[in-house]
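Service request form, structural biology core

Requester: graduate student, group of Dr. S.
Request type: structure prediction, single chain
Budget code: on file
Notes: please return the result as structure tokens.

Sequence provided:
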Amino acid sequence: MVVEIEPSNIEKAFILEALGKDIRVDGRGPYDYRTLKITCGPTYGMVEVQLGQTRVLARVSCEVTRPFADRPTEGFVQFNAELSNLAAPGIESGGGKVSTQEIAVSRMLERIIRQSRAIDTEALCILAGEKVWNVRLDLHFLNHGGNLVDAASIAAIAALRHFRRPDVTIDGEQAIIHDVKERNPVPLSIHHTPICVSFAFLGAQGEYAVVDPSLLEEQTQVSSYTVTLNSHREICALNKAGGVPLTPSLIQHCTQIALAKVDEINEKIQEAVKG
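Core staff response, request fulfilled:
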């Protein structure tokens, strides 16, 4: 078992001293995101996202399956996150074990995408009660540099928007699935694009707030707050972790910052998918 090395007291003191001067150890301001790079391809539904030193590869695939009896016209959307100890030496995974980080990312994606009905699952129906599409999103974290949730949400949305499923022709009670070489594949029906924006609170009372925390900042934080918003400026999910309470005014302040960040991120996703 590999044990994660916590920051030393000197490192923690240096981080807090820098934040007292509105500077972060990587040179960013408190509300600056790290450099975001989104690369699509070479196949539909494959996207790599690099957020600072955090890298994640997303891949969307689909297969035909039978729907639930009580929901005969709804398809499925499944999520899976994989974080190996090669990407993060302090993570205990592999051998059938699932790390807490992997579970947290998968559950967050289910909340913001499936439970918010970002994807039209009825549009995944081929033959009611017989055949529907099962869309699967796999996330592979290549390097853990902090803020896995934001990177995962960006990669997931970009991959789902980039993905194309095979076209289908219905002939009576039979469904003919066309090869992508025979007929142009079809994009998913997406209602909205939820994006996570995470904040870390550092200091004894969480008096210093930063957006898009690095791994070092996450190891030093006393509390965290993630707000999920879409391009319609609607709140899709909120998540608060840690013992330090947040005031309503601070939550509102962070949400306003997140609104601006989501607009910027959606523009980059749009450019990457079109490119």
